[in-house]
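Morning!

This is the sequence you dropped in the shared folder:
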Amino acid sequence: MGDKQDEKPGQAHAGISRRDLLRSGVAGAVGLAAGAGALAGSRLGNDAPTLSGAGSAHDPGLAGAKGDVDPEGFDATAFLKNFDYGSVSTLPSGQIQREYEITAVDREIEVAPGVYFAAWTYNGTVPGPTIRCTEGDRLKVNFTNAGSHPHTIHFHGIHAAEMDGVFEIVEPGQSFVYEFDAAPMGFHLYHCHAIPLKRHVHKGLYGAFIIDPREGRPEANEMLMLMNGFDTNFDGDNEVYAVNTVAFHYQKHPIEIEQGELVRVYLGNMTEFDVLNSFHLHGNFFRLYRTGTDLERYEFTDTVMLCQGERAVLEFTYDYPGKYMFHAHQSEFAELGWSGIFDVKPPTLV
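The structure's back. Tokens below.
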């Protein structure tokens, strides 16, 4: 429908695949220099990013392409901790109501330096806003479809059938109001459920939905990470992988945490075209709370595999300062963008 990325696999396209990029022998590069000019959707010209330090993929100054994604379009560092608590009011019953405004918009996004993707978005970003509330709050989500295709919002969690965002299709130019009580506490997701489902999810219509327990969780340095991938040449296979959309962003811009502090990562998987995605933490283990619906029972591990739609809350503390990698433990995903660094700093003296 006027969107080149609606082409079916097998139709004419740039023809370069992630296998081609990896076979070039340039690890950790997303092939942005070797093949980015051929990636469909790329607007690279004479200033195309080039590789530096081949074989030095663990050096955040060298791994991946030179240059950076414009933070004015999407700041992946800020997104880590950008929780949307909505507009808060109190209903006559005394119940807290949180109201949110979400609009579906077609927008081109930058997923790696100079590599663009024709996305369908919630509020202009992929992922969409991170909705956060407390169990028992009344949620009112005003959804407007300003895109070019029919869309919905399907919230994971417990709610009435008419609020499920499956059969209540919202046509372009139309609106719909989702109203339900937030339950159960935990880490959930939301995404479009219009057909074809894989296209609407892969194009970027998804986000995080956190319901805090009434008693709260222990104080921590909290951040959101949604694992995702992008098929830039329309072959039904992802060429770029990331957490929070931008390839290698947290390797080029390490996440600073403090030695000894509790870190809490809300980790979810919305990758399309791959059965599993994963998270591996270097130099440490984490407590893994599946779906975040239990504050007591957890696994103790350093790697977790998640299917699409699965999520977990990870908690850990670093005993030693220094730089520690985190990445997908499918090495191919890591070499195509899904890799980052925690920069653990000594505690600040007061």
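Headline: The longest strand covers residues 96-112.

More detail when I'm at my desk.
O.
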